[in-house]
Amino acid sequence: MISRFHFPDRLPAGGEVVLPEALAHHALRVLRLREGEALTLFDGAGGEAAARLVVRGKTAVAVLGERSAADRESPLQVVLVQALAAGDKMDWIVQKAVELGVAAIQPVQAERSVLRLGGERADKRVAHWQQVAVSACEQCGRNRIPEVRPVQALGHWLASQRDARNYLLAPGGASGFADALRPPTGVHLLVGPEGGWSEAELATADAAGCQRVSLGPRVLRTETAGLAALAVVQARWGDF
Hints:
Elements: E1 3-6, E2 16-18, H1 21-30, E3 38-42, E4 48-56, E5 59-68, E6 78-83, H2 89-99, E7 104-109, H3 119-140, E8 147-148, E9 152-153, H4 154-159, E10 164-169, E11 186-191, H5 199-207, E12 211-213, H6 222-237
Helix pairs in contact: 2-3, 2-6
C-alpha cells in the first residue's frame, strides 16, 4: 500500500514540494521510506497527488505527478456531538468516526463527564484530536479533514442549533433509526458520557427539539454508541 501524507499547504498542480520536518521524519525515520519510493500527498482541499520521494541531504522533497480530485466524502453530513470521555476513549472515537465518514466532531461538556476541560487545556486537547483526525484521513483515504470543534457546554451548543436533525442517543428511547425519516439536511448525533445524560440534560434536549433514539435493548458504552449510530445512518442515508 502506498503511504499517504497530509501536506499542510495547498498542493501545486505539478513540480515539487519540500516536505515539512515532521512529515519528512515520519516518512524517513518511522516508515523508513527510501529514495524514489511512491507516496501520495493530500492537502485537505479535496484532491490528492501521486508523488515520488527524493532526498537531498537533510531535505526530503516530493516530486509531484498527476493530481486527482478523488472525493471520498459521504453525501450525508453527520456531526458527532460527543460528550467528553475519559482516558484515550476520545482518541478512539475521533479516529473511528473519521473512518466512518463523519463531517465534524463537536465535543461537549456534560454534567456526568469524567473528563473536565476548559481554557488552554481544552484547546490543547482539541488540537490533539484534530491531529488524530488528520492521521485517520491519511489511513482511510479521505481528502477532506473533518473539523474537531472547540469544546462547548451541552446547553450552549443546543441553543445554537437550528439547521439539522438532532438525534439524542438514549437507552429506552421511544424509537430506533428504523422508524426515522430521511433528514432534509444534515444529522447531529448526540452521545452521552460514561454516566449517561442527566435528567436536566434530557429535558433541555427535549425542549430543543432533539429526538430520542435507541440502539436496541442493550446499553452501549459511550465509545461504542456514537460509532454504531454513525454506521446506521450511513447505511440508511449515506454511502454504505
